[in-house]
Amino acid sequence: AADEDEEDESEDKLRGAVRNQVSDHEWEEALDASIQKTASAYTRLPSAVSKNHILRIIMAVLVFALAGMIPAILLSVFSYGLSEFSASVMLSGFREAQFLQVLLFMLQEVANAGELEFSTIDQEPLNPDITTSVVIKDFSHVKKDAVYIKSLLQKSFDFYNLLSSVLLESSNVPDGWTPDSKLSIDVKRADPEVAFVAFSKGPYQCPFDNETLCENPNRIYNYHTYVGFDLLNAHFEKYMKFFLTQDGKPQLASTEEFLFILTSANFDLRKQYDQFTTEFLARMNGSVNTFTIVNLVCMIVQVVLYILTLFLSVLPLKATLNTITNTTNKLHTLIPNNAQYSAEFEEEIWTGVHQFDAGRKKLYDLSMLIVDSIQQFMAHTEVHSLTMELLQQTKIQFTAEEKMMTQVSFTEDLMKKHTSEHLLLRQRMTTLCDNLTNRDDAIVFGALPLFQGLLSNHFTGLDKDFAKFFAKETGLEIDRPVDDQIADVFAIDEQEEMNR
Asked: Where are the bilayer-spanning segments (predicted)?
């Protein structure tokens, strides 16, 4: 341990460090207070982004994502009201009126089979429990044009065949038609069992291969009305062929019979079409109203979410930045302005004695380099190197000044006071350099204010007095402007550095 102490003491002497030579409790307490004040300010300085802010930012992103999904929610709400309208019903009801005319025509013909007698077709009354047909017998206003009726039936029959292949067999789909997946299933066409149920008092039998389809009320809009249509599919082609052909030739029944059929079909078509249109428009209007209300609500929700994002993320971040700015400003008040210190130092550094000014200029430059390095957060090794050089240059400068005092026989009391202050300054500088090379920023910046003002009082006080005495004893004339003299001193010092 003794060897280590001797080694440390020898190293301190080499680098010009002075420790525990002079009692200096008041200054040391001031240094500790400055360090504690800076450390306290550092502890109050919040980080730029904390975990809380990260969580709030993530929450804000999720809120924005939720707000972005609202249009999709609106679209779902709007389409939900129309989801029960089968594409096939909309197609048959709005694309081609002839199709419904033919279907309603057959409903009227079968429902009134007893009044329309066709010897070649077996006629049985339709089961009243499963039909929705309406009979109208007043046909006096209908034009008696059998050719037009025949043409209409022919076109309707062709259209029916095409529509059947599209809806029931999923084939021959014309361009622009809407496919209907709900009806792309096989039908028991011309099945005797289906025919027996349709024209008897027996229980209803589903005409589809998959009988569970008849148990699903959402299969098609207004399902119970279309049960009658489903039952007629099995015999529709047979009836149409009978009306259009007889012994292989085109044939029509009596004009009166067709007028009756056309009148009832026309009335039923209008009634069914109006009913369907009314219900569809009511549903459409309901969907539009719902969409409008939901849209308004969602807009309010979006605004609320955006405001929530503002409060959750933006405002707390702004408050934190304000806190950081205020605390940083307080730290700036604790740390003196380097530019101001530099200007004040330059005004007072000049004495007119070159031996004085050149050495003190070196100490000034080293002090400024140390302050700049610390304020710019340079590498720790660089700051340490500069402080070691400052200690050595201070020792050299003070030793040179003490030799000059001896040369000119400086007053003993003043010389003793001056050299005692040299020792005290070197001791303080050693303590300050130890703190400036500490790895704790609070300690470094706490010691910096005392470091910047360490040499000022000495340079402008005792050094000024001795410089005047030295100039008087050696006969130096000091009468040039201060700025020019300082420039000359700095220029001479720079030239010496270059010569080295």
From this structure: 54-82, 293-315
